[in-house]
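Thread: quick sanity check before group meeting

JM: Hey all, I'm pulling together slides for Thursday and realized we never actually wrote out the predicted structure for the chain we discussed last week. Dropping the sequence here so it's in one place. If anyone has concerns about the input, flag it before I start.
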Amino acid sequence: MKKKLFVLVILLVVLGGTALSLLTAPDAIEDTNGPDNYNLQVINDFDIIDCDMGMTGGISVKEDLIGSGITISSKGFTGVYDILWANYIGKSDITLDLTALTVTEGNFKAVLMLDDEIVEVIPFNQEDPFYSFRLDDVNGLFVLRLAGESAVFQFSISEHEYERFEHP
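JM (edit): ok, ran it. Output follows.
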Protein backbone atom coordinates (compact mmCIF):
# COMPACT_ATOMS: atom_id res chain seq x y z
CA MET A 1 0.00 0.00 0.00
CA LYS A 2 2.79 2.43 0.90
CA LYS A 3 4.60 1.58 -2.33
CA LYS A 4 1.46 2.36 -4.38
CA LEU A 5 0.99 5.64 -2.54
CA PHE A 6 4.65 6.55 -3.14
CA VAL A 7 4.33 5.80 -6.88
CA LEU A 8 1.13 7.84 -7.03
CA VAL A 9 2.79 10.83 -5.33
CA ILE A 10 5.79 10.64 -7.70
CA LEU A 11 3.45 10.42 -10.70
CA LEU A 12 1.47 13.45 -9.51
CA VAL A 13 4.66 15.48 -9.00
CA VAL A 14 5.92 14.62 -12.51
CA LEU A 15 2.56 15.37 -14.13
CA GLY A 16 2.20 18.60 -12.14
CA GLY A 17 5.68 19.75 -13.15
CA THR A 18 4.97 18.97 -16.79
CA ALA A 19 1.65 20.81 -16.68
CA LEU A 20 3.27 23.82 -14.99
CA SER A 21 6.03 24.02 -17.57
CA LEU A 22 3.48 23.83 -20.40
CA LEU A 23 1.37 26.55 -18.82
CA THR A 24 4.31 28.92 -18.22
CA ALA A 25 6.08 28.42 -21.56
CA PRO A 26 5.39 31.25 -23.99
CA ASP A 27 3.58 30.70 -27.26
CA ALA A 28 5.73 31.11 -30.35
CA ILE A 29 5.98 34.77 -31.30
CA GLU A 30 5.70 35.25 -35.05
CA ASP A 31 8.20 37.33 -37.00
CA THR A 32 6.26 40.47 -37.96
CA ASN A 33 9.09 42.76 -39.09
CA GLY A 34 10.18 40.93 -42.23
CA PRO A 35 12.74 38.30 -43.16
CA ASP A 36 15.74 40.68 -43.18
CA ASN A 37 15.08 42.41 -39.85
CA TYR A 38 16.12 40.37 -36.81
CA ASN A 39 15.28 42.95 -34.12
CA LEU A 40 12.98 41.80 -31.33
CA GLN A 41 9.42 43.13 -31.68
CA VAL A 42 7.61 41.81 -28.58
CA ILE A 43 10.30 40.88 -26.05
CA ASN A 44 11.98 43.98 -24.61
CA ASP A 45 15.03 44.61 -22.41
CA PHE A 46 12.88 44.43 -19.25
CA ASP A 47 11.73 40.93 -20.24
CA ILE A 48 15.35 39.98 -20.90
CA ILE A 49 16.53 41.30 -17.53
CA ASP A 50 13.64 39.62 -15.64
CA CYS A 51 14.13 36.33 -17.52
CA ASP A 52 10.85 34.89 -16.29
CA MET A 53 8.94 34.10 -19.48
CA GLY A 54 10.36 30.62 -20.17
CA MET A 55 10.96 29.33 -23.67
CA THR A 56 9.59 27.17 -26.45
CA GLY A 57 11.29 25.70 -29.47
CA GLY A 58 14.34 24.40 -27.68
CA ILE A 59 18.04 25.11 -27.95
CA SER A 60 20.58 22.58 -29.16
CA VAL A 61 24.07 22.35 -27.64
CA LYS A 62 26.30 20.03 -29.67
CA GLU A 63 29.98 19.21 -29.65
CA ASP A 64 31.56 19.92 -33.04
CA LEU A 65 32.70 16.87 -34.98
CA ILE A 66 36.03 18.42 -35.86
CA GLY A 67 38.00 20.47 -33.38
CA SER A 68 37.12 21.23 -29.81
CA GLY A 69 34.12 23.50 -30.09
CA ILE A 70 30.51 23.64 -28.98
CA THR A 71 27.76 24.86 -31.34
CA ILE A 72 24.66 26.40 -29.79
CA SER A 73 21.67 26.70 -32.12
CA SER A 74 17.91 26.64 -32.52
CA LYS A 75 15.40 26.24 -35.33
CA GLY A 76 12.55 28.17 -33.75
CA PHE A 77 13.40 29.57 -30.30
CA THR A 78 10.91 31.84 -28.54
CA GLY A 79 11.50 33.19 -25.05
CA VAL A 80 14.38 34.19 -22.80
CA TYR A 81 17.04 31.70 -21.70
CA ASP A 82 20.40 31.68 -19.89
CA ILE A 83 22.92 29.62 -21.86
CA LEU A 84 26.08 30.35 -19.80
CA TRP A 85 26.67 31.85 -16.38
CA ALA A 86 29.24 32.21 -13.62
CA ASN A 87 29.09 33.82 -10.19
CA TYR A 88 32.29 35.67 -9.37
CA ILE A 89 33.07 36.38 -5.74
CA GLY A 90 35.98 38.76 -5.61
CA LYS A 91 37.29 40.68 -8.59
CA SER A 92 37.85 38.56 -11.69
CA ASP A 93 38.54 39.23 -15.36
CA ILE A 94 36.22 37.63 -17.93
CA THR A 95 36.95 36.91 -21.56
CA LEU A 96 34.35 35.41 -23.88
CA ASP A 97 35.14 34.46 -27.49
CA LEU A 98 32.38 33.36 -29.87
CA THR A 99 32.43 32.51 -33.59
CA ALA A 100 30.04 32.00 -36.52
CA LEU A 101 27.33 34.19 -35.02
CA THR A 102 24.37 33.98 -37.41
CA VAL A 103 20.63 34.58 -37.32
CA THR A 104 18.69 33.45 -40.38
CA GLU A 105 15.02 33.73 -39.37
CA GLY A 106 12.81 35.31 -36.75
CA ASN A 107 14.01 37.90 -34.25
CA PHE A 108 16.93 37.46 -31.87
CA LYS A 109 19.09 39.19 -29.30
CA ALA A 110 22.00 37.85 -27.24
CA VAL A 111 23.26 39.88 -24.31
CA LEU A 112 25.96 39.68 -21.69
CA MET A 113 24.72 40.65 -18.26
CA LEU A 114 26.37 41.46 -14.97
CA ASP A 115 23.87 40.99 -12.15
CA ASP A 116 20.71 42.76 -13.42
CA GLU A 117 22.35 44.98 -16.02
CA ILE A 118 22.91 44.42 -19.74
CA VAL A 119 26.60 45.26 -20.31
CA GLU A 120 26.92 44.15 -23.95
CA VAL A 121 24.69 43.26 -26.87
CA ILE A 122 26.40 40.60 -28.99
CA PRO A 123 26.45 41.44 -32.70
CA PHE A 124 25.26 38.76 -35.15
CA ASN A 125 25.58 38.44 -38.95
CA GLN A 126 28.75 40.55 -39.11
CA GLU A 127 31.44 40.28 -41.79
CA ASP A 128 33.98 39.32 -39.14
CA PRO A 129 32.84 35.90 -37.82
CA PHE A 130 34.70 36.35 -34.52
CA TYR A 131 33.42 38.13 -31.42
CA SER A 132 35.53 38.76 -28.35
CA PHE A 133 34.43 40.40 -25.11
CA ARG A 134 36.49 41.28 -22.06
CA LEU A 135 35.33 42.68 -18.74
CA ASP A 136 37.78 43.46 -15.95
CA ASP A 137 37.27 43.40 -12.18
CA VAL A 138 33.96 41.54 -12.29
CA ASN A 139 32.22 40.82 -9.01
CA GLY A 140 28.77 39.25 -9.32
CA LEU A 141 26.69 37.06 -11.60
CA PHE A 142 27.83 37.08 -15.24
CA VAL A 143 25.31 35.65 -17.75
CA LEU A 144 25.06 35.05 -21.50
CA ARG A 145 21.29 35.39 -22.03
CA LEU A 146 19.40 34.71 -25.26
CA ALA A 147 16.06 36.18 -26.33
CA GLY A 148 14.19 35.08 -29.43
CA GLU A 149 10.93 35.29 -31.31
CA SER A 150 10.72 32.22 -33.59
CA ALA A 151 14.48 32.62 -34.02
CA VAL A 152 16.74 30.40 -36.09
CA PHE A 153 20.29 31.08 -34.93
CA GLN A 154 23.71 29.53 -34.39
CA PHE A 155 27.04 30.38 -32.78
CA SER A 156 30.07 28.50 -31.52
CA ILE A 157 32.32 28.62 -28.48
CA SER A 158 35.44 26.62 -27.71
CA GLU A 159 34.86 23.59 -25.52
CA HIS A 160 37.52 24.83 -23.08
CA GLU A 161 35.78 28.17 -22.73
CA TYR A 162 32.32 26.56 -22.52
CA GLU A 163 33.46 24.42 -19.58
CA ARG A 164 34.64 27.50 -17.64
CA PHE A 165 31.00 28.51 -17.18
CA GLU A 166 27.93 26.86 -15.69
CA HIS A 167 25.42 25.79 -18.31
CA PRO A 168 22.26 23.71 -18.70
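AS: nice. The domain at 29-163 is CATH 2.60.120 (Jelly Rolls). Residues 6-24 have pLDDT under 50 and may be disordered.
JM: adding both to the slides.
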